[in-house]
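Notes to self after the call with IL:
- keep both proteins in one doc
- input above output, always
- annotate only the second one for now

Protein 1:
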Amino acid sequence: MKLVLASNNAGKLAELQLLLAPLDVALVRQSELGVGEADEPYRTFVENALAKARHAAAATGLPAIADDAGLCVEAFGGLPGVDTAFYATRFGYEKGDANNVRALLEQMAGIEDRRAALVSTLVALRSAEDPEPLIAVGRAAGQIARVPVGDNGFGFDPVMFLPAFGKTFAQLPSEMKNANSHRGQAARAMLALMRERWFP
């Protein structure tokens, strides 16, 4: 089965290919099929993921899967949330992982409550008209480190400290990261849903 990934993020593609490998689905990035990015006007991960999956399914006629993920910081009332990818631009920096981390650490200087969670919401549709989307959510809670540590992963991985491991996500081997990450949790839940509903 060919499944369109409603994202052009190479990191997401690699992680999801690995996590969905047991289903024997061929995951193809939407850009490889000439599909542009969808609008993401909503304030929740699930609404944006659904919009992205519908857009990719409508444009290709194939089943689609989309992920909307972000960082939710307790001290900021859950923000940046759906605006995570563009976080740095709010503070005059160019969009990008390194600048996002830099802006976050600057904004958190002097803040003692470092609690945060990386959240991933996956939505899969058999078609753009599918009335019963599969929805899976993963949440990895931790604390924002005071300096970036580690070089594995992407996004906020270097500053997402996990007390249970005493390390950041960027310090964990890929296998351990995928077993505990927000996207890993969501992908395993999605795998179970697909097996139950799409591949009984």
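Protein 2 (the one to annotate):
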Amino acid sequence: MKNIKIVVYVTLGGTLLLGACTNNANTKAPATVNNHEDHDHSHGHDHDHEGHEHNHVVESTADLQKQTSTTDSKKAEPIPNIPPFTFYKVKSGISFTNADLPKGKKTIFVLFDPGCHHCREEANALAKNYHKLKDINLYFVSMNDPALMASFLESFAKELVDKPNVQVLYDRNQDFIQKFHVPSQFPANYVYDVNGKLQSYWEGDKNINEIITLYTK
């Protein structure tokens, strides 16, 4: 097992496995969500993060557990609608906000740790099935150092590299755990419908065929 150094985004299994990358401070089972709330979508602007210090990376399990206990007390379940957020494209440093999400498509957020073996396996399985994922927005999100994220797809999911509907995003300001959800295991998957409402989420490993079904149904 691997203690999480918090980071954000990637999907893989059909049932939670004990081998998933685990945050021991918080344990939760997968769920399907049907209740909805409306949230305003704020607009972001282009911003280059080159030259900025990445002070928001959680450097130890103890730090993560402290952050998790604080945030999870406020939000035990994932938010039912995509909230305003600002992430940054790893390759360009350009900001990417909720206003930049392409309309009329389902949106998948995969919280991941670049060093997590299960996250790598899931990314690889998704890459092998890219032909089934062309019509969804797929975002791998992490709070880890962008230098560790930059080669993630090239190393483990090369079929996803430079695909127009796939991005690796750096969560510099910890927006995901502050606004979306604090997962107990990586990879953690969040499936939002075309209207930005949460359809389902799960944490840890899942069979790739079930993942594809949940992504595309």
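Annotation: Residues 1-19, 24-30, 32-66, 68-75 have pLDDT under 50 and may be disordered. The radius of gyration is 15 Å.
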